[in-house]
Amino acid sequence: MAPSTSLGKITLPRQQRRLLQPLNSPKHKRATAAPPAGLLQELLGDAHPPKPRRASDETLAVHAGEKLGKGADEAATDSIATPIVSGTTHWFKSSEDLIAFKEGRRHSHEYGRYSNPTVKVLQDKISALERAEATLVTSSGMNAIVATLLALVPPGGHVVTTTDCYSEARAFIRDRLSKMGIRSTFIDLDDMESLKAVLDQNNVTLFYADSPTNPLLKCVDIRLVAELCHQKGALVCIDSTLASPINQKPLTLGADIVLHSATKYMAGHHDVIAGCISGSEALISEIRAWHHDLGGAISPNAAYMIIRGLKTMALRVEAHNRTALQIARLLECHPKIERVHYPGLESNPWHQVAKSQMTGYGGVVSFEVKSDLWGTMRFVDALEIPLIATSLGGCESLVQQPAVMSFWGKSDEEKAKNGIKDNLVRFSFGIEKFEDLRDDVLQALEKI
Ligand SMILES: *Cc1c(COP(=O)(O)O)cnc(C)c1O
């Protein structure tokens, strides 16, 4: 079953036992300690004495990985906030100390391009949230994508991807991997017959897809593709950026690798560019080796910004989910709206798949207004709260018209090929108050 690449034996996430119950691990002993008797007894009710249980994402997002202050690391301090270790190199006490490090008897970070204590805290936190054995944080989402593809697909390998995946990843697979002797096949993301046929007729190395996709929010049935791919020894990599680790955990659904543009929901404030890749230690160490060469290390300052962002991710994503779903429902019955794309809507073709693998549907809603290119621009320009900008997943609501933002000056044919209509609007709902956003959308629709 292990793919016949240079990766050797691959541990699939289904076999990753340890991290499925993060708070029961010795690492998190403090959090599972018996609660104080007396005062809390009443509030605790059934929960006392405590039963073994999984840590919730809300708790993991705050605490997981943060052991710099617990004396386990060279940078030990009792500061509650994880220190930003800005040094690029780490010193050894003696040659003997250095040799101990070389022989793996002593832990150190050696050099900043390979690892850093602050970055390690971030990686451990993401591993806990993704239920992964290991995580690599990179300087951008694209760096995560490129490092993953280069590491996992050898020359002569074959990538299957979808016509809907992130446009720059798609271009990289089509235009650059082909020059390295790597074949690629593009399929529709719900065309499982084509996937089966490609898997039957080729020695496929990797299936790569976004779920949900941008901007039309289509969803891949991750359990199904993992089953089909693993039967044929192919790995599965999911770009889960639009879901965030709160709404979807691809590794628990059978994917081998999950990656994110951490620039979006994870950092969450439109102020830092980063990426991350999670999976088994065997796969991540392959990618890590390539990443050392590519030199896409994140700065410790940026890593700290994401650690801080992650602490509120569960709260933020809950707000994004709630607002987006409410507005999607409202737009669906609005006379000036032709169509709404949101997997949380029962009428959406991907709703059943989304419901089976997601716990919320994210803050991005796309919709077609009943107008043309210019009428749609009038709607966008009449909005007062959201900013006209690309990107998503931050506190501020953003809006864009893909025909203008990404396809201005492109032919109708090119737009049609990408499913982009002139009247399509993509909203990334932020965490402002729902009623304010609702009223703003409704007043702007009147201006078309
Ligand atoms: C933004 C984005 C990327 C690229 O990430 P960067 O951090 O901008 O490099 C990749 N995939 C998806 C789905 C994205 O939204």
Automatic annotation (TrEMBL):
Its cofactor is pyridoxal 5'-phosphate. Keywords: Pyridoxal phosphate. This is plant cystathionine gamma-synthase. It catalyses: O-phospho-L-homoserine + L-cysteine = L,L-cystathionine + phosphate; O-succinyl-L-homoserine + L-cysteine = L,L-cystathionine + succinate + H(+). It comes from Panicum hallii var. hallii. It is an enzyme of class 2 (transferase). GO terms for cellular component: chloroplast. One of its GO terms (biological process) is transsulfuration. Pathway: Amino-acid biosynthesis; L-methionine biosynthesis via de novo pathway; L-cystathionine from O-succinyl-L-homoserine: step 1/1. Belongs to the trans-sulfuration enzymes family. One of its GO terms (molecular function) is pyridoxal phosphate binding. Residues 12-23 have a biased composition (Low complexity). Residues 1-57 are annotated as: Disordered. It comes from the Eukaryota. Transmembrane segments: none annotated. The keyword Thylakoid does not apply. Its EC number is 2.5.1.160. The modification N6-(pyridoxal phosphate)lysine is found at K264. Pfam families: Cys_Met_Meta_PP. Gene3D superfamilies: Aspartate Aminotransferase, domain 1, Type I PLP-dependent aspartate aminotransferase-like (Major domain).
